[in-house]
Sequence to fold (426 residues):
Amino acid sequence: MTRTVEEDLRNPGLVRLLATAREKFEAVGGPRGRVRLETLQPHEAEAIDAIWKRSARRRPRRGQPFSCTLRDLEHSLLAMFGLTLEETLCRTGGPLRLRPQERADQAARLAAFWEAALAHDLCLREPRVRTWVEGLRGSGALGGSPFATDRGRSLAISLDIGATFPREPAIERSTLANEILGDPHGLDDGSLAGQRLIAQLAAREGLAGTRLTAGERRALLGRFGVVSDPASATVLVLGLRPVGDSPLEQALRLLAGGHVVVTLGQLARMPVRFERDLLVRLCENPAVVLRAEDRLGATCGPLVCTGGWPGSAVCALLDALREAGARFVHHGDFDWEGVAIGRWLRERYGARSWRFDAAAYRTAVAAAEARLPPLKASRHACDDDDLAVELRRCGVAVSEEAVLDELVLDLDVSGRDPLVIGAAMT
Fold:
């Protein structure tokens, strides 16, 4: 019976030779290099000898090693079966994986991935985002094949979504996720896309690589118009008297002598309107609001507490006030976080200092009755203004609670025009 080419190639005596040739072919990407078999078995020596068409001195011998180049093996296969080595290996073992070509293809796809990311509109208009993306590329944080993994896709998603920020009006996070990804949980804290989006927004605010708490993440999203829960995002106020007739505006006027907590959901459903050119004082801590309520009540001028970094509800209220032409002055804790918050409010809302400068800091340090705590190391540490330089020189922190009496004096508008900026504002 006549044997077929496939039957001849599947001769058990050729299995080891072809397997070794396959490994070499795939490793170098073609019929190049040499292979070696140790101690040929009798059936191997017989099978290889039957197809061997090259130099007689290199013919296989039982019990001896056998070495040949892939070119010589291909010459024998062509002469015996009319098949190249590549065709033979594909017939006996399926498609070849050519490692050099795979590496070159992967390198090309990797380069194209990063080129596209760095050419994204957001990277072009936000240098900090571009620097962040370059850092991801340099660190290998997305792995060697981001073009084919969820980690890589999460970067593309974060850039696409970030390019739409800030969102005006604000949007709830699950609604945004459903709108962009078709999954209301697609931007949750535990999702890759959600984590990448937070990292991208942090980079935009100069906080690249910073580990943020859950509250800090919510506040960060809020500053770009994304809210995690409209009912839990709140702003604490005192002395606000809107001019409209919505239930919220009426309630704020009725309660103006006491502190009021307003939710983002309320601000979204019932926009508030104010008289023109109000002077609104901003503080960082609720203690300022509570002391002013206790001492001044209805004679307290407009006061908004940011509660640390301004969240979505704070920003929504400040946006409404800004639309009415309000002017903002700000006081915070004399520490690196407070300085950073003040800088952010200055950049976004034009807020000026309210007893929050180098001179006020020196006075507070000198007046302190107890030992002041040392400044904690912070990512926000800088020397970009006189206050920051003075903080670094003195090296101690002063909380707002230590200067409450002075702040309350400025908030008393009884017998004077609340629109006039007091002498304490610099």
